[in-house]
Amino acid sequence: MAFAATGEGSGAAAIQYRVNGGEWKTYSNPIRFRPYDVVEARATDHAGNTSDVLTVQRRR
């Protein structure tokens, strides 16, 4: 799975993700996860604003 942040304003500074409610990690490369894992992602811009959380669950 790969993530990209787009939008107007100050631009994305970082993308973070977590799997199954674990710790937020900084995203830098595509990630792999198992079926039924819940993956959440969010982006923070250079002004310090954090996006809403995107939640994805892959089903078999």
UniProtKB/TrEMBL annotation:
GO biological process, one term: carbohydrate metabolic process
Domain of life: Bacteria
Record NCBIfam families: barrel_OmpL47
Name of this protein: Uncharacterized protein
